[in-house]
Amino acid sequence: MNIKQQRLESLLQEVLSQALAELADSHINHLTITGVKASSKQSAEVFIEGTDIPPQERKIILERLKKAQNILKDYVLSATEWFRAPELSFSFDDSLQNANRLEHIFAQLANEQKNQTKK
């Protein structure tokens, strides 16, 4: 990935994090953006930390983010002074949850191995 692409994604992540924090909707103004994958300035996939969010609430959050997309795009335009804001799509990032699950499995394996060596 080139540096220009990384700058674009980093800037979008920062600006969108600020925009979400300023929204009046309590379902989405506390969300953490873990990353942005931009194909260009035309579209960007925004990853939201979803470790502690139940599936029912995820659906509500995605609907509200979709409704707030125009507000978020306006915020991006005003903060960046770009001519056009990218189309935003949102998805949940479960990598932290997966990492925690792997750590738990490794801890169990280590305990089992320790118990077998004691016998």
UniProtKB/TrEMBL annotation:
Gene3D superfamilies: 3.30.300.20. GO terms for biological process: rRNA processing. It holds the Pfam family RBFA. SUPFAM superfamilies: Ribosome-binding factor A, RbfA. The keyword S-adenosyl-L-methionine does not apply. The keyword Metal-binding does not apply. InterPro entries: KH_dom-like_a/b, RbfA, RbfA_dom_sf, Ribosome-bd_factorA_CS. Keywords: Ribosome biogenesis. NCBIfam families: rbfA. This is 30S ribosome-binding factor RbfA. It comes from Helicobacter jaachi. The gene is rbfA.
